[in-house]
Design brief:
With 422 residues, the protein is α/β, with parallel strands linked by helices. It has helices at 6-16, 73-85, 94-106, 119-134, 172-176, 186-196, 219-231, 251-255, 282-285, 304-317, 321-338, 372-386, 407-418, and strands at 40-44, 47-50, 55-58, 112-116, 138-143, 155-157, 163-165, 178-182, 200-205, 235-239, 262-266, 276-280, 343-348, 351-356, 389-390, 399-400. The two termini are 22 Å apart.
Length: 422
């Protein structure tokens, strides 16, 4: 039994005095799960250890990038080697070239890749590129998809397709240029393109929406989006910051056999270090400076530590054995959850989401989700913490399996879930 997190509470109270909400990303504040955030001291494999010495089997995995687990030996060795050689040059270096070549060899339609520092930065740059290539201003996004905190993507559904700012500080002009359509709604999808197709620079979607629960989209819906985008000269952007290299090496683009015009990546591609990337055809990417007139730069872009950690990670993923292990774990988890009354699981490869209910179809849009998901979550999350299980501290965040997880970890999770009174 874990002891009370007294040291975490002490550190949190200190952090409140020097940082907004005491954290550096809102979901870490435990605002949707209750209680105070845990301060983690170290991690190894599938286990987190907090500053009070408590241990937790981790199914958050830093919100997705750690597909191999915490402190993977190959990734650690690559990062240490990078530190020994010098951790930032501000020049061209060989490892981003190797990483880009490795990716292109397996994903040939991604002819040119630009590395940046985060998924948000990748999306911001992809939108700018689409606007420049089409000489249009408007963007279509989908309610329930998250694309980082760039202004144009912090827009929520308003009346009809009109978007409204979802954050203070977003100007009305930005909101006016972003339209919002529902997921999995063919009529509204056609309506959006009928009205605004000639004005749309880009349509951006998470093909595996994973930030408002896990909302798997149908092949038919994504194929129709691809068709309409092509018909109207709109650039289709797949935001695969989460699903890239996790839903198979080729991500959802490979899974659905759909080639977007631009793809954004992050998380797994850097092995857990700060990273982002966007990629597309040579014809499209030639618009990026210094070849073209779309400006984008970054002091730490293609940082050698992240590039070498990413190389070590993707090299481990190439032969498919890690994905086979993750699939075995996923099936074991699904089978176990099926035997527990009151809880459902939605799983796409090594990403999964637990939500209350029984024998229901998995939701495909936020409007399909019952209010009980948020209402029961604080009690559920607290129960699992007491049992030594760490899930993301939000009812809407997706959980992740890692190569370091073993069947015993799944059994531990199932035992904890099964002992909760739904």
């Amino acid at each position: 039994m874990n002891k009370a997190p007294e040291r975490s509470t002490e550190l949190y109270n200190r952090a409140l005095a020097v940082s907004p909400g005491g954290v550096h990303s809102p979901v870490r504040a435990f605002g949707q799960s209750g209680g105070n955030p845990l301060f983690i001291q170290s991690a190894q494999g599938s286990t987190l250890t907090d500053v009070d010495g408590n241990t937790y089997t981790d199914f958050c995995m830093a919100f997705g990038p750690l597909i191999l687990g915490h402190n993977d030996p190959a990734v650690a060795a690559a990062a240490h080697a990078a530190l020994d050689d010098g951790w930032s040059y501000g020049t061209a270096e060989p490892w981003s070239l190797e990483l880009a070549e490795l990716i292109r060899a397996r994903i040939p339609w991604a002819e040119k890749i630009r590395f940046v520092n985060s998924g948000t930065e990748a999306v911001m740059s992809a939108l700018r590129l689409a606007r420049a290539a089409t000489e249009r201003n408007r963007v279509l996004k989908f309610a329930g998809c998250y694309h980082g905190h760039t202004d144009a993507m912090l827009i929520e559904a308003g009346s009809g397709l009109a978007g409204v700012a979802g954050s203070a500080g977003v100007t009305p002009g930005v909101a006016d240029d972003t339209l919002v359509a529902p997921l999995d709604d063919f009529d509204q999808l056609h309506h959006a393109f009928d009205l605004y197709g000639h004005e749309l620079a880009a349509a951006i979607i998470e093909p595996m929406p994973a930030n408002h629960g896990l909302l798997p989209q149908s092949d038919e819906f994504l194929a129709e989006l691809r068709l309409l985008s092509h018909r109207h000269g709109t650039r289709l952007i797949f935001d695969e910051v989460i699903s890239g290299f996790r839903a198979g090496f080729g991500g959802c683009a490979e899974r659905f056999a759909i080639e977007p015009d631009i793809v954004t990546w992050g998380k797994v591609i850097g092995g857990g270090f700060p990273v982002g990337a966007y990629a597309g055809s040579s014809d499209l990417m030639q618009h990026i400076a210094p070849e073209g007139d779309v400006y984008q730069a970054g002091t730490l872009s293609a940082n050698p530590v992240a590039m070498r950690a990413g190389l070590a990670t993707l090299r481990r993923l190439r032969d498919g054995s890690v994905y086979e292990h993750l699939e075995r774990l996923g099936r074991l988890l699904e089978a176990g959850i099926a035997g527990i009354t009151g809880i459902n699981i939605t799983r796409v490869d090594s990403a999964f989401w637990l939500w209350p209910g029984s024998d229901e179809e998995p939701p495909r849009s936020p409007s399909d989700i019952d209010a009980a998901v948020a209402e029961r979550f604080p009690e559920f999350h607290s129960h699992l913490l007491d049992a030594g299980i760490y899930l993301p501290p939000s009812p809407w965040e997706t959980c992740f399996l890692a190569a370091s997880h073993q069947p015993d970890d799944i059994t531990k999770l199932l035992t904890a879930v099964g002992s909760f009174k739904f």
